[in-house]
Design brief:
By secondary structure, the protein is mostly helical. The protein contains two helices and no strands.
């Protein structure tokens, strides 16, 4: 969630004077995709943990 906020903030600020710090558009897009990857990994871990509990109970 924090990465998403940082990414959106960078994308919003890309048209301002702070854009002199660097390519905020590229940094924002990369950060947004990184948060997407972390979300998929987190979801996969959740499903894997849930599946192990289902198998352990024999359901």
């Amino acid at each position: 969630m924090a990465l998403q906020v940082v990414a959106i903030t960078m994308l919003i600020l890309e048209g301002t004077e702070l854009a002199e710090l660097g390519n905020l558009h590229l940094a924002g897009i990369v950060t947004l995709y990184l948060s997407l990857v972390f979300g998929y990994v987190s979801g996969g871990q959740y499903v894997w943990s849930f599946w192990k509990q289902v198998v352990a109970k024999g359901l």
